Amino acid sequence: MYELGVGGGPGSRRDRGPRPGLGARGRLAATATLSLAALVVSTLPASAAASAAPEAQGAAAPRLIAVHPSTGATAVALSPARRGQLLDEAARSAPATARSLRLGTQEKLIPKDVIQDADGTRHTRYTRTYAGLPVRGGDLVVHERAGGRTVTKASNAVISVPATTAEVPAATARKAALAAAEAERTRGTTVPGKPHLVVWASSGEPVLAWESVVTGTQPDGSPSSLRVTTDAADGHVLGHFEEVQSAVGHSEYSGQVDVTSTPLEDGTHALLDGRRGGHRTLDASRDSRGVLFTDDDDVWGDGAGASPQTAAVDAAYGAQQTWDFYSERFARNGIANDGRGSYSRVHYGDHLANANWQDGCFCMSYGDGGSGVNPVTSLDIAAHEMTHGVTSSTAGLGDEGESAALNESTSDMMAAAVEFFADNPADRPDYLVGEESDIRGNGKPIRYMDHPSKDADPVKGTSQDYWSPQTKNLDPHLGAGVGNHFFYLLAEGSGKKSINGVDYDSPTYDGSPVAGLGLRNATGIWYRALTVYMTSTTDYAAAREATLRAATDLYGRNSGAYEAVGNAWAAVNVGPRFVQHVAVASLPTGPVAVGQPVSRQIEATTSRPGSLTYSARRLPKGLSIDRHTGLISGTPKQAGDFRTTITIGTSAHDRRELPVVWTVLPSGGDHFVNPSSYTIPKWGTVESPLVVTGRNGLAPADVKVTVDLYKDFVGAQIITLVAEDGTVVPVKDFDWDHGTELHATYTVDASAVPADGTWRLRVQDATPGIPNADPEPGRLAGWSLDF
Questions:
Q1: Does residue 562 sit in the same domain as residue 437?
Q2: Is position 217 within any domain?
Q3: 730 FRET partner, CA 20 to 30 A, in 168, 214, 581, 773?
């Protein structure tokens, strides 16, 4: 279940022009038969069409970038019958597809969804089983184009487990699941079904696991359905996921609106929408299962919260607008793209200040707020909750970490898009979440997409403006700030502006401005990335790649849209920024040392056709750069600080110059140092070399080894010194120091081996497999030997 995360008028949209203060970029309504080229014109003010993206940091950013989309990558509408036919075809060919992907003999593919583009490209999404067991994190998407087949996988690990028989009984898994629910403060817990075996591949090496579902009530009164996964070998919890995630009639928030009802045989009317898959709106005030709303005169509600029907009107209107948005913008036939309608329950729970979507019932539930008189049924909340259903039916984001944060931000993005699509004067479109429902009772929104950290929840904490290594550990609604901020920047750009009378001021991580593409284009890019390229384990780095691929499909790699996507991500500290059409992911000019061989690779990309070229001025003596590959190599000969300028050029003669001060440390005599940084893989081993020259005979019995490293649980890092002949000298054994930094000097006896030669410092991560332990990669920042 997906929770919100707390502590239109009548008339044809197609005939309305932009309202004052909104600009044409705010009009999201369009018939499905319009070309994308026609649609993009409606998103851009005349001034933007003549503007160009800034080519250097510090340049004044135009408000919007004009782009020219291709219609080939647009998804076509599939009737339920045609969609079913394509899924049947995929099921019949699944064994052959599995073989072509070189999956194991015990693996099977099960089609989940299919999307077909206008140019005939087909994207089929599969779940996977191993020896008949579901594989969590094993989903993949097969992209079949005229030029061949590619695949996007949730996990690149080989799916295999030593045995499919659990070492711990199901009863142990059940107890662990109940304990996990208790830790989440879930009340009235029960495990209605038996735990079942799965293969857990969502992180690290696949393992056999028990999966249990614990039901109950969350602390705020929302229902709970907690899916808990425990290792079948030792019983520790691998992960848990709350499946109940919270986020003419007279409505309370949207004014007088048209809602669709159905006449009944007795002359009354039911709030049942036969035009949208039979969506039903139910009253849960006396029965949590809900009772269908009926009315004698087909005039629903009175615009005030005291009328039970008023909340029903808001819920029905939200479902209607969300269905129409996905249909008109993306030719999507309902939440699951199968023509099936969901249902909505209003007046749910006891003073529930939340709303939620549940996959199990394919339904939304709305509380009446903490006061009991402010139903949580505003349009953006309705769209937020139903978008959780879209995400579940496509990428399946949300088990843990950044994937769960992306799930929440996706719902916020599409909620904003639905508001602009509805263009209701009673609920002005904006980039705020939940401002109408006053969920916290303070008159403020619960999220600000332009500047997420403006939301400081007294219980959960502050939303993130920018990505950090801690994002994965945050509550998903706080980590969602990174995605929300990216989306706002991609749509509107940075800096101060007023839209529909709402003032925004969006900052960037590096202080440099970014230009937007318009809301329609930003929404199109995200939707394609979600439905075609994202998987259940997508994190922010992978979301960047998915949106860049989507921008390539829709607009071309050498487009302003492609660079705008990259720069919006850079503005929230995910990936590099494009300057002069070149993005540099890694400029490896950290300290080096005299006499120590260097091999450093520049990692850069360009949006322009052709390859990059590399050159450098004033490199440290002894180093050179490969013009075609960007590899810097050699052996530094002189210590000092070198004012180096690295130049990267494109085939179109764009040039990006990167001035750096490159430090070369002295090394030799009695002191030898390798300051190069190496990644310590989680539960893996890394070695860093150090060349010693000019020393005669054997090494002394009191060699000093100085180590600088960063890693969660530094005590679990086992360090050894390896001589050139393979002799291993212990440096540091396992200990229980739970610190995150190690800066220490150890004295070791190396008198059995020659001093001269290439020594290696070996670091092994031996973090124990304790409950909820999932060690992150560490960093060996450098080391030295003193003789």
A1: yes
A2: no
A3: 773
570 and 576 in contact (C-beta within 8 Å)?
yes
Q: Report the pLDDT averaged over residues 467-495.
A: 95
CATH code, domain with 641: 2.60.40.10
Same domain, 748 and 648: no
Q: What is the pLDDT of residue 510?
A: 93
At 728, which CATH number? Answer: 2.60.120.260
CA distance linking residue 29 with residue 401, whole number of Å: 34
The CA-CA-CA angle for residues 546, 589, 557, to 5°, reads: 25
Q: Which single residue is written with the structure tokens 């210590």?
A: 639
The residue behind tokens 């699509």 is 421
Helices (H), 493-572: 519-528, 540-555, 560-570
Distance CA(653)–CA(649), nearest Å, equals 6
β-pair type (207-217, 223-231): antiparallel
Report how far residue 201's alpha carbon sits from residue 407's, in angstroms, rounded to the nearest whole number: 19
Q: What is the pLDDT of residue 693?
A: 96
The answer to whether residues 559 and 593 belong to one domain is no
Q: Active-site residue numbers?
A: 385, 477
What digits encode the pLDDT tens for the residues 599-655?
A: 999 999 999 999 999 999 999 999 999 999 999 999 999 999 999 999 999 999 999
Claim to verify: residue 509 and residue 442 sit in the same structural domain: yes
What does the pLDDT read at residue 56?
A: 38
Q: What is the pLDDT of residue 247?
A: 42
Number of domains in the chain: 3
Q: Domain of 454: which CATH number?
A: 1.10.390.10
CA-based angle 657:678:579, to the nearest 5? Answer: 20
Residues 456 and 537 in one domain: yes
Say if strands 244-246 and 355-358 run parallel, antiparallel, or are unpaired: antiparallel
Answer with the one of 638, 665, 692 that is the final residue of a domain: 665
Is 719 domain-assigned?
A: yes
Look-up: residue for tokens 């008109």?
Answer: 328
Percent helix, percent strand, percent coil in the chain, to nearest 5: 25, 30, 45
pLDDT reading at 173 higher than 70: yes
The boundaries of the domain holding residue 676 are 671-786
The residue among 291, 325, 324 whose CA lies nearest residue 308 is 291
Q: Are residues 503 and 436 in the same domain?
A: yes
CA distances from 142 to 200, 297, 698 (A): 21, 51, 59
Look at residues 547, 570, 593 and tell me which one is the last residue of a structural domain.
Answer: 570
- Are residues 611 and 693 both part of a single domain? no
> For residue 45, what pLDDT is reported?
28
- Classify burial at 680, counting beta carbons within 10 Å of its beta carbon; exposed 0-12, middle 13-18, buried 19 or more: buried
The angle that helices 540-555 and 401-422 make with each other, rounded to 10 degrees, is 40
The Cβ-side half-sphere exposure at 759, using a 13 Å CA radius, reads 23
pLDDT digits (tens, 9 = 90+) for 14-64: 232 332 222 222 222 222 222 222 222 222 222 232 233 333 344 445 568
Q: Does some domain include residue 627?
A: yes
Tell me whether residue 512 is in a domain: yes
The residues pairing with 680 across neighbouring beta strands, listed in sequence order, are 778
The pLDDT of residue 346 is 95
Region of poorest pLDDT, from 32-46, 140-154, 279-293, 536-550: 32-46
CA dihedral sign, ordered 440, 445, 448, 453: negative
Q: What SS3 string covers 67-95? A: CCCCCCCCECCCCHHHHHHHHHHHHHCHH
620-651 CB burial, b ≥16 within 10 A, e <16: bebbebeeeebbbebbbeebeebebebbbbbe
Task: Report the alpha-carbon distance of residue 315 to residue 289 in Å, rounded.
Answer: 16
Are 592 and 676 a contacting pair, CB within 8 Å? yes
Q: Is there a single domain that holds both residue 502 and residue 612?
A: no
